[in-house]
Design brief:
This protein has 101 residues and is mostly helical. Helices cover 65% and strands 0% of the residues. It is built from 4 helices and no strands.
């Protein structure tokens, strides 16, 4: 069962990195644009996703793998990429150990 979880986690990390890397080429106006019916802007959505993943990681491991940032702090794509990589590594380490699914 653990191998399947590692496959899912690896794909998730790959996909998140791919999307964030693509967004590095977007200008500020595009990153901050909103559309009706969505969570918010592209950058706000990615901040939310990475924050949520850190919260899930805390629930699994009992430790925060990345420092939560204040809501008023401007966190860009580069920081999100770093945190996403850290979260992915943390999940891979967690899944490599014995755990009760």
């Amino acid at each position: 069962m653990g191998n399947g979880w590692r496959d899912i986690a690896g794909h998730h990390g790959w996909a998140t990195t791919l999307l964030l890397t693509h967004c590095q080429g977007l200008d500020e106006a595009t990153l901050n644009a909103t559309a009706p019916g969505t969570y918010g802007s592209i950058i706000e959505t990615f901040r939310h996703l990475v924050d949520a993943e850190a919260s899930y990681m805390y629930r699994l491991t009992g430790a925060w793998p990345a420092r939560p940032w204040p809501e008023d702090e401007a966190v860009g794509i580069d920081i999100l990429l770093e945190r996403a990589a850290l979260l992915s590594e943390t999940l891979e380490r967690f899944l490599a150990d014995d755990w009760d699914d």
